Amino acid sequence: MSASLPISILELAIIAEDSNATSTLERTKLLAQTADKLGYKRFWLAEHHNMAHVASSATVVLIGHIASQTQKIRVGSGGIMLPNHAPLIVAEQFGTLATLYPNRIDLGLGRAPGTDGLTAQAIRKDFVEQSQRFPENVTALQDFFNVNNASAKVRAFPAEGVSVPIWILGSSLDSAALAASKGLPYAFAGHFAPKLMHQAFQYYRDHFEPSAYLQKPKMMACVNAVTADTDEEAAKLATSLTQMFLNLIRNDRKPLQPPVEGINDQMSEVEKFHVDQMTACSFVGSPEKIARELQQFIQYTQINELMITSPIYDFDAKIKSMHLMKTVAVSIITSKKENLVL
């Protein structure tokens, strides 16, 4: 483990109750600028479709906007759902982004549609086939970025020869196996499907094959994080996260809801079981509490990077949580350095 653990942000651009897409995208820009100033490493955006309360459906457009409004932070996809797109188009888009913003663009790739089955078919009629061809399409995408593709009949401009780091995203052993076999960095979606995280990381480490892109395993975990001055305040803020997953289970899509009292009383035992499973990799509390819990998590998972997502209703509280989480990261780094000295 390195003595310094980079921390990054996955922003889902969820529209809050009494808000709209315009305000959400403006706040997404402000979040990215704050993360940039605080020294976060990456700011990733996810591809979702047919969701009235998610403002990141045109993910590539939003990545370009955020990159244009920030200075140093890496901006990327967490992720682009490759079965929705032709590899050639993805290469052209991200090659353009990387040309405009050199050494600042990441390309995280996922296999899921980022939507429901009917919408996936509306996006691409052969989605199921392309999902099964995910490994081959990742290879095709890599080829389009490769300078050695110059002799091919189909080429991607301005992607050819441009360096865009590709990450494999996932929440299963299949994604871990693909990332390991291709020698690519691996990011696990612990913020909504943490069940197989430890097994996936272990499989990835054990089966990693060095490549021209990466010589040793590189793992990132994405987790939920809600931080406030006190444990009680953070727990109250986190009820918006709980409601988000509860509404998902009920198939009752709503904007991000404000915090509530007595959230457990609003769930049946079965609903609470499923919500607890989906949010098992969540860090909620004061900086001191989260620092202790994250220290254990990092040592256990052996991750190289940490990415957080924070569905907090109040924008000022969300900004404060970002500040506090950066403080937490510094305290963990300091603690790790002390451990190394000892």
TrEMBL record:
The protein's name in its UniProt record: LLM class flavin-dependent oxidoreductase
All copies of domain Luciferase-like, residue ranges: 17-297
Family membership noted in the UniProt record: To bacterial alkanal monooxygenase alpha and beta chains.
Database matches in Gene3D superfamilies: Luciferase-like domain (3.20.20.30)
PANTHER family named among the record's database cross-references: LUCIFERASE-LIKE MONOOXYGENASE (PTHR30137:SF6)
InterPro entries noted in UniProt: Bact_Lucif_Oxidored, CmoO-like, Luciferase-like_dom, Luciferase-like_sf
